[in-house]
Amino acid sequence: MDSISQEKLLVLIAPLIALQLLLTLISLIMCVRSKDLNGPKIMWVLIILLGSLIGPVLFFAFGRRSS
Amino acid sequence: MTQWMVLYRKEWLELIRSSKLIWMPVVFILLGAMQPIMTYMMPDIIANAGNMPEGTIIEIPTPHASEVLAQTLQQFGTLGLLIIALISMGTVSGERMSGTSAMILVKPVAYTSFVTAKWAAIVTITAISFVLGYGAGWYYTAALFDTVAWQDAAGSLLLFGLWLSFIGTLTILFSSLLRSAAAAAFTALGTAALLSIATSLLPKALAWSPGKLAGLASAQLTSGTASGMWPVIGITFVCIIAALAISVWSLRKYPSIEAV
């Protein structure tokens, strides 16, 4: 905690936060636009928003019905 | 060979269309980078947890960089395995259900190239995601702790990558044997868990088991050598080839859902 200042740590972590946001955003857009979901849409939106990393993974794996 | 390339490109197209090629590397990068950061911030997290009595002093020794990277590998060993099983669970059974496999296999397409093209696509996406994720973990370990020698990191990368490919192959095998995709994923994960537990319980009897690969990768990181890795690697390759042969046989016997 002494070797790296708080700001430097934030700069380091920033790309990860961006990636996490990107992942959430992509899955949210796909969820909202999709017409063929496994279960109610509002349930998947909540899963994506609340399950930080697992949520989008679950949505991609089980959310969409493959045509 | 050209026919195989066409099938492989079809699998690749499927990975892009189902957006697996986007989310899987992103999830692996987040997974790999999270562990070093969590370890780095652990004293702060505990200090802010709030349920400590006043004046508690917890001394956490700063872990060695190679230990941090080994913990990152463990993350890939749990969540990473789950993700690999999830993306490959429907490879054969899904196509059988939708009738795609029947449609392709009435054409003069070798069953072997049909299965191996799928397998190669799974291994490629696993390799891309794991290299990116492990690279992120290595980068953050170097930034927050200390650099790990790239030779050790690369050695553990190859060993653990082989373990991940082995799980992908197992999922394809069960996907061709079982009707349900979810059942295939969970049988493969169960087999992986059983293999690792059996290998740690009976280290002498199962000295060559593929379940040792994850432990060997950690050993490569922490001590710089993974003794006895060649027989394990050999056996794993034999198991992968056998699993592919069984899936080809199963697909030949039951090419469509009506025949099951």
TrEMBL record, chain A:
Topology relative to the membrane: Multi-pass membrane protein
Superkingdom field: Bacteria
Keyword match Nucleotide-binding: no
Span of domain Cardiolipin synthase N-terminal: 23-64
Signal peptide feature range: none
Transmembrane annotation, as ranges: 9-30, 42-62
Keywords for this protein: Cell membrane, Membrane, Transmembrane, Transmembrane helix
Localization per Swiss-Prot or TrEMBL: Cell membrane
InterPro entries found in the cross-reference section: CLS_N (IPR027379)
Protein name: PLDc N-terminal domain-containing protein
Automatic annotation (TrEMBL), chain B:
Pfam families registered for this protein in UniProt: ABC2_membrane_2
Coiled coil residues, start to end: none
Family annotation (PANTHER family): INTEGRAL MEMBRANE PROTEIN-RELATED, MEMBRANE PROTEIN
Species per Swiss-Prot/TrEMBL record: Paenibacillus oenotherae
Keywords, comma-separated and alphabetical: Membrane, Transmembrane, Transmembrane helix
Organism placement in taxonomy: Bacteria, Bacillati, Bacillota, Bacilli, Bacillales
Protein name listed in UniProt: ABC transporter permease
Transmembrane domains' residue ranges: 21-42, 76-94, 115-141, 153-174, 181-202, 229-251
